[in-house]
Amino acid sequence: MPQSSAADQNIRIVRATSAFDCGGRCPLRLHVKDNVIVRIEGDDAEEPDQLRTCLRCRAYRQYIHHPERLMYPQKRVGRRGEGKFERISWDEALDTLANQLKRVKKIYGNGAILLMTGGSYLASLHRGGAAAQRLLNLFGGYVTHYGNISSEGAVWASLTQYGSVMVGHSREDMLNSRLILLWGWDPARMISGTNTMYHLIRAKENGARVIAIDPRYHDTAATVADQWVPIRPGTDTAVMAAMANVMIREKLHDQAFLDRYTVGFDRFKAYVLGDEDGIEKTPGWAAAISDVPADTIVRLAREYANTRPAALMDCQGPARSAMGEQYNRCAATLCAMTGNVGRPGGSAGGGLMGIPVAHMFRSPAIPAGKNPFELEGPKVKGTLDIRERVIKRIHINTLFDAILKGKKGGYPSDIRMAWSMCNNYLNQTGNSNKAAKALQNLEFFATQELFMTPQARYADILLPVTSTAERSDLMRPWPSGPYFMFSNRALEPLGECKDDLEIATELAARLDIKDFETHSEEEWLRRLYEKSTDLKHHIRDFDRFRQEGIHRIELETPVVAFRKQIEDPENHPFDTPSGKIEIYSQRVADIVEGLCPPIPKYLPTSEDRNDPLSRNYPLQLITPHPRNRVHSEMYKVEWLRETEPHRVWINPVDATPRGIKDGDEVHVFNERGTIAIAAWVTERIIPGVVSVFEGAWYHPDENGIDRGGCCNTLTRDAYSGGGAAVLNTSLVEVRKGERS
Ligand SMILES: Nc1nc2c(c(=O)[nH]1)N[C@H]1C(S)=C(S)[C@@H](COP(=O)(O)OP(=O)(O)OC[C@H]3O[C@@H](n4cnc5c(=O)[nH]c(N)nc54)[C@H](O)[C@@H]3O)O[C@H]1N2
Ligand SMILES: Nc1nc2c(c(=O)[nH]1)N[C@H]1C(S)=C(S)[C@@H](COP(=O)(O)OP(=O)(O)OC[C@H]3O[C@@H](n4cnc5c(=O)[nH]c(N)nc54)[C@H](O)[C@@H]3O)O[C@H]1N2
Ligand SMILES: [Mo]
User: Fold this and answer.
1) For the chain, what is the domain count?
2) SS3 of 475, please?
3) How far, in Å, CA of 320 to CA of 333, rounded?
4) Most buried of 325, 648, 655, 730, CB within 10 angstroms?
5) Full-prediction pTM beyond 0.85?
């Protein structure tokens, strides 16, 4: 709760945090005067408990009080996408949305209503999507999306291999590691749990060797790595298979571990040795695919197999690709081959890194309930749900395709209107030009937003929502925990902003929905606490928790994924059909054979470097997450922009023959679109690959050239056999821009 400051009696210090989908969760002390945040301080705990504030949270007040925050409801007056709006009253805005919902339902049925939600607000009560879902359930149903654009490859791989997504160790366990492989993992930028870098640096100081395997020489590599192994995007599984080959040939693998805890290693071995398809997966074979020299692969294999314990840290970026899940499955397989699963200082792979301690609130405050309108049809189930749940929704990566094509395109319904909150999918899913076309096709589109984002520009009605600083909520730290957070409301709503829950409540009255449960924020939060066994187990005194804003959990020993399964397998089987780690998965063979092999394998894909398309578009594009933003959020914050200009990374080997000099404006293009962006000519990226951070705002000019430099103007709206977004598998060409 607010405390008074000695210096200025009018300043309150409020313990809060952000709700961003940002890789961390920083405890913040917001200094508030006259409903303005005037200063921000971070966590006041001593080392080693202190959770260091990231650069984005240090700029939090520039975000909350940004002059371009939406402050009142608006309606579109120009063309869709043009961004011309006019101020209207809340009554007019809510009446319009309610009337459109009624109209569309009456004429076309509930299948014509699309609800677009997202994960940008990671807290319990005010999750915009939850309130809207509850409302539309009571309204007779809606169409929505399933699958996530974020980590579905890794989720699929972890569920296949382990039957669990809790594949992480608490980060201080890296101190027990003697070797750490950053395999497509760059926590200095993407955080991966607040303080992960702190523990990684301590591990390094403790003598661990660190090797980064990545197409970019990234910030973490520059800070802690002993070695950088540059690799071609999408070829990790080939290198891992070749490492397995070296281990098998040189008998370096832990056969006893494999016998005891896994099924299907023989099938993988047959693949690796070439017994299955006549091609032995030698280091030479993998070198030709990945550009990682054969002797480097041999050394990597020997070092990883001979240094115990060792942590192979794969993540989600490389898995956001055309065969993404294979990378996480193969990483997990190497972890088993070296007996590192379930062991302190080791790792399980799988790319998710979550631990099951206080990392999220299991019971949502507002149960979404069951959507009475369930879709049927060929493109509805999408990919395998490994839990064998039948999900009847449209896959997130074909959302805009579904809007464009409807029933004629094989989708189960014709979508006429959309209502959106907590996402900027036009900018954040593949193929933004196509998404923009799809939004033009709608009869009506309403968006709840804080900013005039690229997607918001297409709205007919724009509803301004409060920021995290204007709400109280229970916050979820990113996967590592282990702590709970309570973010106290620091500000009264700015301008005419309302929170998403309030909007849903006001719509309920207009839609004549009587049983839409309503409570005050205070009541909801208490109910949530009362309902959450996890919270009640750890936190006795709710008021104190809220006053302190954080509850840290003391771990007697570091959390190690699958420790029980390894130490006491008789009583703790893995949650897979065989009860073991599944290197071969019969479920996969039964359900998605053809799309995904039942053992991890390297497979060529479209838009890899050997695709004939590479004659026209010879460069591979990767799109990592930006250090100075959360995806497309905070894009407008000047302080953060200054820290890193938006540029395409390009190696001199590729820049020189194209006449491109550092700082030139270039066009990066393919058949899906063209972006204009400055070039950063640097050896920090492998030749043949260019990198554009995701999240810059899509902004097409009159010729269709995206002057905002949104990478998704270039990516595809497709998904892999396991459901992963293919956002890191695109071929492009680069040439000097007209303006340079
Ligand atoms: N090319 C490429 N694309 C990617 C990725 C990639 O690696 N490469 N990564 C993907 C990943 S991992 C993710 S998670 C997605 C993220 O995709 P999104 O979640 O669509 O991305 P954000 O930019 O976070 O957009 C969230 C929007 O929600 C709004 N918002 C925030 N809080 C609230 C709220 O409380 N209420 C309402 N109504 N609105 C709110 C914000 O203002 C913002 O505009 O992007 C994906 N896109
Ligand atoms: N600052 C900041 N932090 C964030 C976010 C943010 O927007 N901003 N978003 C958060 C969210 S929602 C998520 S899901 C996570 C995402 O975290 P990740 O998925 O781990 O992040 P990415 O940045 O997509 O990619 C990680 C690394 O993979 C590398 N890479 C790309 N392709 C390949 C490949 O084929 N092989 C190999 N070996 N490496 C490859 C990239 O160069 C990058 O260094 O980050 C979270 N943290
Ligand atoms: Mo994500």
Assistant:
1) 3
2) strand
3) 19
4) 325
5) yes
